[in-house]
Design a protein that fits this description.
Blueprint (H helix, E strand, L loop, with lengths): L8 E5 L4 H12 L3 E6 L2 H14 L5 E4 L5 H12 L9 E4 L4 H12 L8
Parallel strand pairs: 1-2, 1-4, 2-3
Helix pairs in contact: 1-2
Length: 117
C-alpha cells in the first residue's frame, strides 16, 4: 500500500515495543523518515536499526520520559527546530502518550507544570 508519505517525517512515541514498534516499522517500509521515542533507549536503538533495514536510512531513536520535562523539551525542541533531516514538516503517529506529552509541554511553557500522569 502506498500511503503517500515517502520522505515525510514520522514521530512515533511508545515505539520500543508492541503497537508503537509495529507502526514505526510499517512507516519505515513506506519510506517515511522515522523518529522513534520511548523510555527504553536500548530497545529503541534496535527498532531504529530495523527501520533502517526496512527503508528509513535516517531512522533516529530519542529517549523520552514523560516524567522528565527536560526530555520532553529536548525532543520537541529538536523536532520543531526544523533540524530533523533539514525539514520542519512532521507526520505524527500518536501511539502511547503523545497527546499527554503535548499537554505537559504546553503547561510547562505556561508555567503550570503537572507531574500527574
Amino acid at each position: 500500500m502506498d500511503l503517500g508519505i515517502r520522505g515525510k517525517v514520522a514521530l512515533v512515541t511508545g515505539a520500543s515495543s508492541g503497537l508503537g514498534e509495529a507502526v514505526a516499522l510499517q512507516l519505515a517500509g513506506e519510506g517515511a523518515k522515522i523518529a522513534v521515542a520511548a523510555r527504553r533507549l536500548d530497545r529503541l536503538e534496535n527498532v531504529a536499526r530495523e527501520a533502517k533495514r526496512r527503508g528509513a536510512p535516517d531512522a533516529r531513536p530519542f529517549g523520552l520520559d514523560l516524567e522528565d520535562p527536560a526530555s520532553i523539551d529536548a525532543l520537541l525542541g529538536y523536532l520543531f527546530s526544523g533540524t530533523l533531516w533539514g525539514i520542519g514538516a512532521i507526520v505524527v503517529a500518536v501511539v502511547g502518550a503523545l497527546v499527554q506529552l503535548a499537554q505537559r509541554h504546553q503547561s510547562a511553557a505556561a508555567g503550570h507544570v503537572s507531574t500527574a500522569a
